Amino acid sequence: MDRFIWANGLLEINETLVIQQRGVRLYDGDEKAKFDMGTLLLSTHRLLWRDAKNHEYCIAIPLSQIVFFEEQAAGIGKSAKIVVHLHPASANKEPGPYQSSPNNYIKLSFREHGQIEFYRRLTETMTQRRWERVPASQLIQPTNTSQAGRTRAVGIVGIERKLEEKRKETDKNISEAFEDLSKLMEKAKEMVELSKSIANKIKDKQGDITEDETIRFKSYLLSMGIANPVTRETHGSGTHYHLQLAKQLAQILQTPLEERGGMMALTEVYCLVNRARGMELLSPEDLVNACKLFENLKLPLRLRIFDSGVMVVQLQSHNEQEMITSAVDNVSDKGSLTAEELAKLLGISVLLSKERLLLAEKMGNLCRDDSVEGLRFYPNLF
Predict the structure, then answer these.
(1) For 108, left (φ over 0), alpha (ψ -120 to 50), or beta?
(2) Can you tell me the distance from the alpha carbon of 282 to that of 269, in angstroms, rounded to the nearest whole number?
């Protein structure tokens, strides 16, 4: 409500009345304001509210202050409303009924209906934006006698000049942004080259690695992830791409899988791989297609799909019986466990812990109690 200013209720030059509606109440946000049962007027430039009893009591708000507006349907004992979202109040705003307000929107409550037609006309008026048009009489104005023979750049000329200045400023900002991006890409290339150089030195045992190079390499390694990810640009878009991708995935997932007990959900793998690849993100489809090639390429990993449809990546050396035995032992020690409780004990995801419990149940080692409290597993004493 602090966007409203006092008005005399008269239309200004070049301003035209569009529609008016009686019985409208104003809300400051969701709270009722002191402006009750007045006439709401929509002009080509402003929204005006005039008190039904005292016509000199009038407030107005420019249409340029409106960000967007939406309808709010009527309910039981509630009238239909139009919610109008507003720009922040300017520092040099003229005096109005409210000095400040915590809300950035007002509500127009139509107690005597008419909101449908008013909303339609408001939409048309906001689309036309007639308040932005400059009258023909103001296109070119002569200066005073001391500046005879010269004209000021006003009206269309002034607008075009302002638009040109704004365009130049935009071009400058875009150029600076791409300049920063280019510097970042150049730095990334330097880091990749450095990591390759040090990796080759270690591999070939040629030359000495200075302490400075080691420190730089460690700092880059923490932030770079995969130094040279397999991409479609470098390996094509067909089967060859998925073959090379599968080989690289096998290299980078070996250690994480060993640390996580030999198995990871495919969603975890997706997040881990894309975090390491940086800006060269991998699509879910490409990840699945590459994982399906693990066994054909005789890599130490394989893609497994549980009966529930959950997909995981696991080591070929992963011992399923040990996994079942571990789940049964934990349930026996605690008396009973849910998937969430087992996940906390083993430090794995809830999804994988549930699959372990379901697998142990399938083998006949556990039984379940499915109640309103959730799914809980017990040792199978039957």
Answers:
(1) beta
(2) 11
> In this structure, are residues 289 and 242 in contact, taking their beta carbons and an 8 Å threshold?
yes
| DSSP string of 309-371, one letter each residue | S-EEEEETT--HHHHHHHHHHHHHHHS-B-HHHHHHHHT--HHHHHHHHHHHHHTTSEEEEEE
* pTM (two decimals): 0.38
Residue 97 CA to residue 6 CA, distance in Å, equals: 7
pLDDT tens figures, 203-226: 565 455 555 555 555 554 444 456
Q: Is 313 exposed, middle or buried (0-12, 13-18, 19+ CB in 10 A)?
A: buried
Pick the CATH number of 237-379 from 1.10.10.10, 3.40.640.10, 3.40.50.10230, 3.30.300.20: 1.10.10.10
The CATH architecture annotation of domain 5-132 reads Roll (2.30)
**CA-to-CA distance for 182 and 197, rounded, in angstroms?**
23
Nearest C-alpha neighbor of 312 from the set 357, 347, 262, 277 = 262
Residue pair 19/120 in contact by the 8 Å Cβ criterion:
no
- Other beta carbons within 10 angstroms of residue 174's beta carbon come to 10
Residue numbers of the chain with a pLDDT score lower than 70? 134-155, 157, 171, 173-229, 231-238, 278-279
Pick from 45, 77, 83: which is nearest to 64 by CA? 45
